[in-house]
Amino acid sequence: MLDPKQIETWIAGGMPCEHLAVDGDGQHFSAVIVSTEFASLNRVKRQQRVNAILKPHFDSGVLHALSMQTLTPEEWKAQTNNG
Predict the structure, then answer these.
(1) Tens digit of pLDDT for each residue in 31-68?
(2) Mind listing the domains of the chain with CATH numbers?
């Protein structure tokens, strides 16, 4: 069974993250990813960036499903201050 911490390691190894949290049940996972790399990207491009990092794991079948929230540090700060 895949550990959410392993997915965090893969993502963090492929891009700088100011905040990264992955949760899941071993099959389906959700992630909150905060990175300055997202500043100039729309939501689709942000998710494509993360999917490119995880592509080998999707292709091998080790990782099946990941829903993600991709935020810039500014968006994360605004969300955490208002929530």
Answers:
(1) 999 999 999 999 999 999 999 999 999 999 999 999 99
(2) 4-82 (3.30.300.90)
- Please tell me the predicted confidence (pLDDT) of residue 11: 98
Axis crossing angle, helix 4-14 with helix 43-60, rounded to the nearest 10: 120
CA torsion 55→14→43→22, rounded to 10°? 80
User: Do residues 25 and 66 touch, judged by C-beta distance below 8 A?
Assistant: no
